[in-house]
Amino acid sequence: MTEHTSFLGIPVHGDITRGETRVEQKPIEELQPILQAVLDDPTIVEFGWRQYTPYFNDGEPCTFSAHGTWVRTTDDKDADEDELEMWGHRSLGKIPGSRNADTGQWEYGAYEGPDEARYHRCKALEKAIEGGHFEHVLLDSFGDHANITVRRDGIEVEFYDHD
């Protein structure tokens, strides 16, 4: 397909292969209050995530992303990172849900847990980290193939081996 467009006022002709559609990037200033809300919670000890570009993706493009957001509370001191991921966190609680067989839509129940406001602050953090809107900020700040741990006194970045 021939595209007729321009680049800086110069006509462009030819076959243009569009790359992956990326979400609009947001500035670091929009991430700060989300991070701060979790850091200000005295029951949150630390939190983190993994970020990397996969080496292989079954023939699909390998693109950078962040995932595996986890949160450690004062009740989770001996828990493994896998037990602290947001999808099934043992001390933050949960909002149970299931897919409606007739409509295919997800339906959610009421929050179950000790502090719904804390849960929603942590879910907002997860959405910010994993939602793609801050990928440039995260990549520029912490690099690729990284395991990030955030504490009140600092941020630790370790190489993440994902193969």
Give a structural overview:
The chain is of the alpha+beta class and 163 residues long. Helices cover 21% and strands 29% of the residues. It contains three helices and eight strands; from the N terminus they run E-E-H-E-E-E-E-H-H-E-E. The strands form three sheets. Strands 4-3-7-8 form a four-stranded antiparallel β-sheet, with helices on one face. A two-stranded antiparallel ribbon has the order 1-2. It is globular, with a radius of gyration of 20 Å.
Features:
alpha+beta, globular, 163 residues, 3 helices, 21% helix
Distance between the termini: 38 Å
Task: Calculate Rg over CA atoms.
Answer: 20 Å
What do the pLDDT scores average to?
Answer: 91
Number of helices: 3
Shape by Cα distribution: globular
Beta-strand level of the residues, as a percent range? Answer: 25-35%
The tally of structural domains comes to 1
The largest sheet, given as strand count, sense and whether it forms a barrel, is:
4 strands, antiparallel
Helix content: 10-25%
Class of secondary structure makeup: alpha+beta
Sketch the topology as an H/E string, one letter per element: EEHEEEEHHEE
Oligomeric assembly: single chain
Unreliable sequence segments: none
Strand arrangement across the biggest beta sheet: 4-3-7-8
Number of strands: 8
Write a brief structural summary.
This protein has helices spanning 28-39, 116-130, 135-142; strands at 2-7, 10-15, 44-52, 65-73, 97-99, 106-108, 146-151, 154-159. It is an alpha+beta fold and 163 residues long.
